[in-house]
């Protein structure tokens, strides 16, 4: 049962344009969402996060939007740069109980930004 | 400062053998996690250590998998009687105190079971 889904395995974007990566979740108990970026042969690195009490968080070229009613979040990168090419993972954190602090990850989306 | 380190970076073993994977978290981080990423899959949670509390082992796929964390620092993930389906990248992450802090990942150990 995949509680966090990234339905697009890959995305190709031209340099300078906007990249939009999507993520859907099914568990309404998730209270915090994160995006991680992963280069080959490296561990994932934290990119940006959002609490469930907010609907938008912005950090430079990166903005995360959360639509709680739709159980959907998205990561916008604008303008996209070739160095942004990586695998992007959406993750959600459970609230309370034994799941507290544990992250549930999506399958990842491979972003390729062409010069 | 130093990040999360894992060893070995690559491990090739024969089916049926036991393997141990090591994780050195960032000093002072109270929480430690193990995940694995199989080919074409997302990161799958395995086990979570938080301070002196009993670990959350809910993600371990079978009783062949176990992990311990000694002295609140270094952790070892042990897989007994390895199977080919255990082949994956095993990632360790640590987190400082405070529930909203992101997890910091190590580079992973690529395990190949022949």
Low-confidence stretches of chain A: none
Low-confidence sequence ranges of chain B: none
- Percent of residues of chain A in beta strands? over 45%
Provide the helix percentage of chain B. under 10%
Arithmetic mean pLDDT of chain A? 92
Cα-to-Cα separation, first versus last residue of chain A: 38 Å
Number of helices, counting only DSSP H or I runs of 4 residues or more of chain A = 0
C-alpha-based Rg of chain B, rounded: 13 Å
Sheet-strand content of chain B, in percent, reads over 45%
Which sheet architecture does the biggest sheet of chain A show? 6 strands, mixed
What structural category arises from helix and sheet content of chain B?
Answer: mainly beta
Based on the structure, what is the oligomeric state of the protein chains? heterodimer
- What is the end-to-end distance of chain B? 37 Å
Order of H and E elements of chain A? EEEEEEEEEEE
What's the alpha carbon Rg of chain A, rounded to whole Å? 14 Å
The backbone outline of chain B, from C-alpha atoms, is globular
- Let me know the number of strands of chain A: 11
Which two chains form the greatest contact, residue counts included? A-B, 26 and 27 residues
Question: Would you tell me the structural class of the helices and strands of chain A?
Answer: mainly beta
pLDDT averaged over residues of chain B? 92
The ordered string of helix (H) and strand (E) elements of chain B is EEEEEEEEEE
């Amino acid at each position: 049962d995949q509680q966090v889904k990234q339905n697009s395995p890959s995305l190709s974007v031209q340099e300078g344009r906007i990249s939009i990566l999507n993520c859907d979740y099914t568990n309404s108990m998730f209270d915090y969402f994160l995006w991680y970026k992963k280069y080959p042969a490296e561990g994932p690195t934290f990119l940006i996060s959002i609490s469930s009490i907010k609907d938008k968080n912005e950090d430079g070229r990166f903005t995360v939007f959360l639509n709680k009613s739709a159980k959907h979040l998205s990561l916008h990168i604008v303008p996209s740069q070739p160095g942004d090419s990586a695998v992007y993972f959406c993750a959600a954190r459970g609230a309370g109980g034994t799941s507290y602090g544990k992250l549930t990850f999506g399958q990842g989306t491979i972003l390729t930004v062409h010069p | 400062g130093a990040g999360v380190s894992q060893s070995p970076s690559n491990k090739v073993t024969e089916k049926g053998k036991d393997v141990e994977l090591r994780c050195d978290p960032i000093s002072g981080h109270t929480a430690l996690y193990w995940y694995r990423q199989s080919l074409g899959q997302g990161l799958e949670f395995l086990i979570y250590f938080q301070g002196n509390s009993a670990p959350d082992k809910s993600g371990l796929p079978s009783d062949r998998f176990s992990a311990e964390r000694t002295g609140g620092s270094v952790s070892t993930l042990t897989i007994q009687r390895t199977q080919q389906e255990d082949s994956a990248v095993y990632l360790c992450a640590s987190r400082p105190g405070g529930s909203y802090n992101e997890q910091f990942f190590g580079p992973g150990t690529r395990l190949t079971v022949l």
